[in-house]
Backbone:
């Protein structure tokens, strides 16, 4: 490898055509091994590239420097020289001085390269320049290391990190490669102009590891050289080769300190035996009672504890009982079994009633029938309940006193008159299998539970009621026959489909959160024939958050929380109690309810006929009701937009779901949505597929449809 530089020779002859100024360039050359522009003092130009440095050697001060069109990035004055930072590719320089005059448009005799250092020597003598070509032999050296990113020193000067490559003048050099936690490698290399030199340093570890276990128990805290690390079992990070000090500490054990040595690249294993500094005690109480040690509650019934050696106090405490208290002294390593017994404070009660054979309950617990004497009752207040089929219930508070007998004698009331009505009236009424004509009816019923049946055409309602002396005296039931309806208030045009309740197999074996397949029964309800449209949303909310705009397009980009505000305002305007469907209601309706044909998607086993999804949607939503309806006449339950449900999401909910009208988990952080969308693959539109997200989530793939209870 060769390059050229310019040699300047000062002549003592006078050539008037060269001496129009008193500032002259004595010499200009590249400083091949100077790293100031690349490593030590680099600066970047406006393009983010490293500048070249022209080191101007002069004994004078007060110069003004003007670059060509590329300009000068910065000028620094150093001792006996100026440093000019110029962009690579600069061509000329103008030098001005108030006393020495001006050197205008001095043309650099060599190309100005990025991150390269040049030396310009100025003189005020008369100068003639002669350009001579001279070849300096250079060669590349490439330095790598294992591991990588090691520091590289050449001739004791830091030059960079591995992998490192540089072109240098041929000759001999010293090198050193260093990396923290590794032994350094040093040596010499020689550059010749025939071929490049490759150096690879395999650095040997100057570290090792330690693995620490403790017996008889793990979980001890570890300190190495005074620094807390973690608990046992413990494997360290890299530790420098040499001697270290280990401290091991655990509550109820004596601390231990060990010196150990780390070897290069080796793992040292230590097993530390900890000496117990405690006594063990097993405590049982009869009957079960709270256990206190040194007046601090430790548990209930039976416990095992570790105690420091010495004298300790043990006590069993239970409400309405006499405590049992003991003291005992322990030594380290001792194991003791201790039993504590509390004695009850009790009394008794004699209970009679008219009529007899009434069921006796104290605080809800059954104690047989009257007449009866209840013995060994703990002192205090009890709620006494006397019940008998066909009679009213008596409930009162009694007080049991220690070593005393309380006498109770009560007369149970009989039944009372109640009113039973229906909407609409005229329904056939039977109570406990006896026909009472048509509603409304006023009849006398005995205290207790009764089964009512009301029939209005095809609509049948069965209901259990309880008659008690403090309970309701009037009952009314909705026996309206289930049918589709349209709500036109404020021009909303909300179409609802009547869904006759029934049982179905919910879930599938296609995904873990769809398992197990289980039987679910839902009551009659109504569900939206279509997804809620943007026109309906605007009529209630006065805005349109949707990404795809169109009155008959489904509203989207709405969160679960946004929908609750919409429903609240909708119900205030319509007088209805609209809501989101439960997940069970949604899947039942999507499957076709009582008319289900067992389709994979809502209304078909072929998705294209019933849904807009990623293969046919053209990457957008479509007007509601354009595809084929399902068995119940409901549209778009597969595809178009995902639909929020009312339930919290739990991936394991199906394993514990109630069989009747499941409402989802009682709490959670994410809500369910179902049905797939225009942007999703075919499998997401299955009627059993479940998805979920945070209730504040909004996106242009999620909308909803309304539901309404039948009563």
Residues:
């Amino acid at each position: 490898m060769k390059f050229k530089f310019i040699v300047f020779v000062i002549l003592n002859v006078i050539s008037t055509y060269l001496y129009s100024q008193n500032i002259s360039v004595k010499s200009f050359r590249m400083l091949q091994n100077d790293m100031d522009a690349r490593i030590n003092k680099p600066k970047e130009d406006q393009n983010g590239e490293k500048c070249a440095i022209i080191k101007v050697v002069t004994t004078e001060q007060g110069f003004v420097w003007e670059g060509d069109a590329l300009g000068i990035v910065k000028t620094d004055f150093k001792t006996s020289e100026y440093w000019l930072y110029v962009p690579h590719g600069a061509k000329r320089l103008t030098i001005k001085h108030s006393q020495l005059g001006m050197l205008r448009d001095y043309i650099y005799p060599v190309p100005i390269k990025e991150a390269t250092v040049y030396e310009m020597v100025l003189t005020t003598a008369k100068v003639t320049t002669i350009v001579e070509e001279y070849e300096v032999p250079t060669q590349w050296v490439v330095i790598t290391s294992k591991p990588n990113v090691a520091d590289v020193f050449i001739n004791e000067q830091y030059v960079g990190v591995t992998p490192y490559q540089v072109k240098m003048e041929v000759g001999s050099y010293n090198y050193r490669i260093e990396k923290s936690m590794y032994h350094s490698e040093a040596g010499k290399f020689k550059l010749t102009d025939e071929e490049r030199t490759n150096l690879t340093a395999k650095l040997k570890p100057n570290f090792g590891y330690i693995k620490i276990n403790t017996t008889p128990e793990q979980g001890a805290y570890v300190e190495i050289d005074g620094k807390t690390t973690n608990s046992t079992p413990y494997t360290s990070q890299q530790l420098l080769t040499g001697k270290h000090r280990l401290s091991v500490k655990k509550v109820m054990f004596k601390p231990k300190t060990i010196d150990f040595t780390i070897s290069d690249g080796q793992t040292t294993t230590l097993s530390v035996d900890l000496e117990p500094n405690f006594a063990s005690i097993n405590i049982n109480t009869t009957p079960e009672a709270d256990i206190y040690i040194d007046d601090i509650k430790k548990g209930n019934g039976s416990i095992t504890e570790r105690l420091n050696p010495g004298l300790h106090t043990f006590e069993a405490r239970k409400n309405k009982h006499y405590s049992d208290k003991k003291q005992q002294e322990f030594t380290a390593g001792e194991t003791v079994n201790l039993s504590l017994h509390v004695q009850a404070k009790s009394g008794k009660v004699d209970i009679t009633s008219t009529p007899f054979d009434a069921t006796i309950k104290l605080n809800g617990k059954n104690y047989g029938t009257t007449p009866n004497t209840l013995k060994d009752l703990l002192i205090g207040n009890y709620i006494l309940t006397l019940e008998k089929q066909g009679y009213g219930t008596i409930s009162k508070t009694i007080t049991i006193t220690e070593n005393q007998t309380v006498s109770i004698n009560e007369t149970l009331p009989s039944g009372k008159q109640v009113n039973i009505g229906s909407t609409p009236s005229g329904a056939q009424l039977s109570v406990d299998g006896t026909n009472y004509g048509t509603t409304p009816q006023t009849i006398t019923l005995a205290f207790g539970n009764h089964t009512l049946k009301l029939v209005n055409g095809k609509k049948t309602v069965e209901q259990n009621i309880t008659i008690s002396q403090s309970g309701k005296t009037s009952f009314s039931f909705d026996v309206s026959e289930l049918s589709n309806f349209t709500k036109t208030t404020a021009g909303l045009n909300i179409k609802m489909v009547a869904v006759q309740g029934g049982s179905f197999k919910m879930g599938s074996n296609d995904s873990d959160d769809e398992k197990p397949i289980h039987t679910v029964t839902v009551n009659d309800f109504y569900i939206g024939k279509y997804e809620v449209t943007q026109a309906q949303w605007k009529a209630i909310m006065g805005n349109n958050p949707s990404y795809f705009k169109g009155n008959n397009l489904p509203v989207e980009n709405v969160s679960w929380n946004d929908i609750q505000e919409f429903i609240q305002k909708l119900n205030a305007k319509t007088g209805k109690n609209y809501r989101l469907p439960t997940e069970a209601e949604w899947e039942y309706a999507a499957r076709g309810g009582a008319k289900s044909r067992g389709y994979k998607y809502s209304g078909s086993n072929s998705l294209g006929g019933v849904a807009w999804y990623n293969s046919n949607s053209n990457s957008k939503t479509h007007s509601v009701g354009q595809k084929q309806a399902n068995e119940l006449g409901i549209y778009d339950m597969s595809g178009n937009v995902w639909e929020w449900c009312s339930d919290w999401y739990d991936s394991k909910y199906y394993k514990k779901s109630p069989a009747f009208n499941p409402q989802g988990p009682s709490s959670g952080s994410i809500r369910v949505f179902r049905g797939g969308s225009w942007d999703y693959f075919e499998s997401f539109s299955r009627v059993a597929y479940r998805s979920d997200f945070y209730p504040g989530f909004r996106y242009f793939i999620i909308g909803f449809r309304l539901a309404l209870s039948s009563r």
In short: The first strand starts at residue 24 and ends at 30. The domain at 485-709 is CATH 3.90.1580.10 (paralog of FGE (formylglycine-generating enzyme)). The radius of gyration is 47 Å. Residues 459 and 481 are 5 Å apart (CA to CA).
